[in-house]
Specification:
The structure holds two protein chains of two kinds.
Chain A (H helix, E strand, L loop, with lengths): L2 H5 L5 H22 L5 H5 L1 H6 L3 H9 L3 H5 L12 H5 L6 H14 L8 H11 L8 E2 L5 E2 L15 H9 L7
Antiparallel strand pairs in A: 1-2
Helix pairs in contact in A: 2-8, 5-8
Chain B lengths: L1 E4 L4 H4 L2 H13 L3 E3 L16 H17 L3 E3 L3 H16 L1 H11 L12 E2 L1 H9 L1 H7 L8 E5 L2 H4 L15 H8 L3 E2 L18 H17 L4 E4 L2 H9 L1 H7 L8 E3 H8 L25
Parallel strand pairs in B: 1-2, 1-3, 3-4, 5-6, 5-7, 7-8
Classes of the chains: A mainly alpha, B alpha/beta.
């Protein structure tokens, strides 16, 4: 299965893209109405200080309908999800939600997904968790497991086949 | 008080100290934790990939607790936000609820909206309360200057209903004072750890971590206190690497709030997982420096 299959949630890619498109145009309409480019979002942005993300410019580009350009930009993947832009916007525009929609669109459009996201997603689909139980190092350089520490078995989907079925039976159509 | 413990992913697969300290202190504060089988990821860390997936996964976990008639305690702020946001969306949008429930029916689950979702601070500060914690303190700390780190998801966005004020959170400070610490303000207090960037920009994530810890260290704090397994992984487990990325020698003791509460109650360090903190915590002892 490719990553796109895994993310489609079973509704065909056309449907998924339609849904995200609707989400984006809804955001675009609200943004056009409310954002007045005060840049309060950018002044607090955690990714701005380090990676030059400028949320108010993302909003300005969305306002002008440059959605393809945004979807294809690496910049949308620098957001740290700190929620400061959403918290501080005097007009309740929430650039972070625009960024989530743009990233979802990039994935649904079959663009390469950066970094570890593919592995994380595959892990969630196969065992229900982002990663499997690990052994960890102690201060005195020993390695201990969850059960060594007296912790009960980790909670995972009771029936992995059904769980995976729920997510992946829905994931049938390719782009 | 009785809650289903929703462990999430990072805490039960590697941040064992958080889980151990929670399991130690909660019963002593009259909070019963129930372990349920079948939980999965909350979906928040993969929200960038597909937001619908996040909604479905969170709804699924809430539905599992609803089936047992239990409210949910989510110690990880990221999980807590995902579950709360999902609850808010599904409770206000019936067509979305229907759509998500269609996915859940494969596992025989239904989201109804009957369970409450509480965070670590909701429990410690609002349900248990500082008075009760104070009564349990047997071995207070003394004269230690503590820096607090709430974790972004615990306090923002306030629109969803978060555990403390988004710009000036004080609940961890209040709890620390009852344990004998001297928490102090620092300008970088609200800065992000960068942890969620680990998925695609791990170096940048470590730089964020290193920058914050460096300024905390420069301002003469004795220790750094957090409540999020993602943040703790950055500040404690990866402290040396974080220091390397900002060319600083970091020697900042980092604790989970729950570990400090446990220590001041007189619980042994073994039971609180202190042997798993990799930052230089040895210099911090109950009873002062």
């Amino acid at each position: 299965m490719s990553i796109v299959d895994l993310t489609s949630m079973g509704e065909s890619q056309v449907e998924v893209r339609k849904e995200i498109n609707e989400r984006l145009s809804r955001l675009q309409d609200e943004v056009s109405d409310y954002c007045y480019q005060c840049a309060k979002c950018t002044s607090g942005c955690e990714a701005h200080k380090l990676l030059e993300l400028e949320p108010h410019k993302i909003i300005a580009l969305l306002k002008r309908g440059l959605i393809d350009e945004l979807v294809n930009s690496d910049l949308i993947w620098t957001c740290m999800s700190c929620f400061k832009c959403r918290e501080r916007c005097p007009q309740k525009v929430a650039p972070i939600d625009v960024l989530f929609a743009l990233k979802n669109m990039a994935v649904a459009a079959g663009k390469q997904i950066p970094g570890n996201y593919t592995a994380m997603l595959q892990s969630v689909l196969s065992i229900g968790l982002l990663q499997d139980v690990k052994s960890v190092a102690t201060r005195d350089n020993k390695t201990v497991s969850r059960s060594d520490l007296g912790l009960p078995d980790v909670s995972k989907p009771a029936d992995p086949t059904k769980f995976m079925g729920m997510l992946s039976k829905l994931a049938v159509e390719k782009v | 008080m009785k809650y289903a413990l929703y462990p999430g992913c990072v805490m039960p697969t590697e941040q064992y100290a958080y889980e151990m300290s929670i399991r130690e202190i909660m019963p002593k504060l009259d909070v019963d934790l129930v372990d349920l089988k079948g939980f999965s990821c909350c979906g928040e860390p993969i929200k960038s990939v597909n937001q619908m997936l996040t909604l479905s996964l969170s709804a699924r976990n809430i539905a599992l607790a609803e089936k047992e008639g239990l409210d949910i305690f989510a110690p990880c702020p990221i999980c807590h936000l995902a579950l709360c946001e999902t609850k808010r969306v599904l409770d206000s949008d019936s067509s979305m609820k229907e759509r998500v429930n269609k996915h859940l029916s494969d596992e025989g689950l239904t989201y109804t909206g009957s369970s409450d979702i509480v965070s670590i601070l909701d429990i410690l500060y609002d349900k248990v309360g500082v008075e009760k914690i104070k009564q349990m303190v047997k071995k207070p700390f003394k004269d230690l200057k503590a820096a607090t780190h709430y974790g972004c998801h615990l306090i923002r966005p306030s629109e969803i209903g978060r555990s403390d004020d988004s710009e000036n959170p004080q609940k961890i400070e209040e709890i620390l004072k009852t344990l004998g610490f001297k928490p102090d303000y620092y300008p970088e207090k609200l800065d992000c750890c960068g942890g969620l960037l680990t998925a695609n920009l791990p170096e940048s994530a470590l730089t964020k971590t290193g920058q914050k810890l460096q300024s905390v260290q420069d301002q003469g704090f004795d220790l750094f206190v957090d409540t999020c397994p993602w943040c703790h992984r950055q500040y404690d487990s990866k402290q040396i690497k974080a220091g390397e990325t900002v060319a600083a020698k970091l020697e900042m003791p980092v604790f989970y709030l729950t570990q400090l509460i446990g220590l001041s109650m007189g619980i042994s360090s073994d039971k609180l997982g202190l042997n798993l903190n990799l930052s230089p915590i040895d210099k911090i002892k109950t009873g002062g420096k």
